[in-house]
């Protein structure tokens, strides 16, 4: 362990976040720029190393970073998905399963950009009947942006402090999501709140149960809840049995012996 | 300017089951065949990472790229047709093997009644039984005539099954035994027997034992891994063109596949095709492949699109009911179901695409329709496909679709929910049809197809009747709670997956006035163009279409050989 530390220059004390920020040119005339990164600077740089940010041995999940959402959007989706798939006695909820990270990662790529969907106009979202399906010109990134904004606009109406969705009580969050589902909220774009809600519910379930390589279903805990064995090569000996056969799950990582 | 390529005997538009069968049959006889395929060349090695529900089932890895091409849809002519922008109700595959790669392998022959549905209906109930606007017609071929072609397909793929015990049903001798009996199929069978029905194991094209087919192709048995539909089989145990007919065609040295190439037009003059115009999507170059025979062997809808775009055959007119291209579009009336919730866990994660049991008692004309307000029927089945966790989240009646109650119920019932489904026949109507969309275009600027389709009372009454039968069986199986569907069917909804069994549009028949093809799948209006496939079905049955598609492909192969020898119309 200690040997490993010596070999890895990025674990060296000298390489603090402050150094990183300096080296990456985020300072102007020695003054660190404000904004998102500025808030990191108040922290003791040694703390960074103590928690072993770059040590896989400490169980850090490198996947827990954002590709698309900003922090506030992430917090909103983290809270909303937890209401859709909450932690209960039967097992973990969306937060613990890292569903919001899964959604972030999906939106950052072809799914969020609708690259395999027919997105050629003209568009007639107002004229379309629901059974004609996706008829907005907006891609899923844009639908999420509008949906998240509206979740927070609705949240701000709850009290004079204008709270964020993530800071509401469970009951208040559920109330807002129900209004979205029932199309009682108007989004500022060519898409309905129920359309956004249906999409949010769909990706929440995906994040709970997709192979963990996508960033959700942490430690296959989604599968474990359902006794779903994930990737297995053969069930010939199971099928004829009357009793339930529990099998420890495997992810596709086990198939990829790199 | 398109580059002209040396002439070949036969050019195929699409290399799925139809293209593969015709390629194998005719290259074995020494003919040169070129297969033009819009997707990539697939192999079993592609499926090393196939047990990925998100990638294959949700993101539709094996399906056509809709950004390049789709169709538009409306319920009726007063609505504005709008594009099918994301995959929903049906899924069209691409790449060699086509939809024959991602299918489940449930393999049934259509009934003798299906091929002569008009005559049989009139004979038993009189003309008055056929409602106004229903375009029932015979196929111009009988089950008896098709039987040898069915046998060929069964032997080539290695179907496993057992005889259907229902009196009057065709007796088929399958080359392999049926799939495993599981507590789920056994429970269904004993319940349906108690109710006086005739259950049997679903005929399966997931190999039930190692098998060598008449072409000498040896394949291994299904491992019941639970990833079949929408996935490719990493074992080659699920019959697909890539592991059966395509290697046979290649072995002859007479077959060439051109992947990543999209055919835009069949070229023709004076009632004869000269070849096809296609684009290589990697270089962007256009080519003309001349051929003695053009086989339009793409997915059902793409066949219609190509003919309309090539101005081949007379487009259908829904107002007068005349014309043939786009006529008799039909689907699968598949929304009558019952979900049962049990007190015991079943091994639902395990399974295979065609592992199931079913009854045919309410399909075709096996039951009396005199007092019923619909024709034809449905097969009623239970399957054990492998309940993958994103797709399967069943909750008892009155449980919401999200939140605490949903989470607990969907998790607790993950291995306790069984489903019985009724796969219903979809019959043709004058105003359910396909034509060219006036507004939307594909990536080459060619018009998209426009589908005008909705459920009729025929479908709604059928689904209600069948939903009730499903629920009756589910109760008999001992479910503590049963959730039935089929009694509240409104308009056809293209958002939700139902079935990739789209049929019709280029139908076969005995009369050139009401059909596009003769009984050899040869175009009446262009003698060297053959269009086998589900687009040739005059109506859809209560069965999966692939077996009948396969039989028609063998029939067409025979026709093409005859044509190459004699020329002229074969009928």
UniProtKB/TrEMBL annotation, chain A:
Coiled-coil boundaries: none
PROSITE patterns: TAT
Membrane spanning residue stretches: 20-41
The name this protein goes by in its record: Gluconate 2-dehydrogenase gamma chain
Keywords, comma-separated and alphabetical: Membrane, Transmembrane, Transmembrane helix
Lineage summary: Bacteria, Bacillati, Bacillota, Bacilli, Bacillales
Pfam families named among the record's database cross-references: Gluconate_2-dh3
UniProt keyword rRNA-binding, yes or no: no
The keyword Transmembrane belongs to this UniProt entry's keyword annotation: yes
UniProtKB/TrEMBL annotation, chain B:
Domain Glucose-methanol-choline oxidoreductase N-terminal: 220-328
UniProt keyword annotation of Transmembrane helix present: no
Entries under InterPro entries matching the protein: FAD/NAD-bd_sf, GMC_OxRdtase_N, GMC_OxRtase_C
Gene3D superfamilies: FAD/NAD(P)-binding domain
A single MF term (Gene Ontology): oxidoreductase activity, acting on CH-OH group of donors
Keywords for the protein's UniProt record, in alphabetical order: FAD, Flavoprotein, Oxidoreductase
Domain Glucose-methanol-choline oxidoreductase C-terminal intervals: 431-553
Pfam family, one: GMC_oxred_C
Family listed: Belongs to the GMC oxidoreductase family.
Protein name in the entry: Gluconate 2-dehydrogenase alpha chain
Native organism: Psychrobacillus psychrotolerans
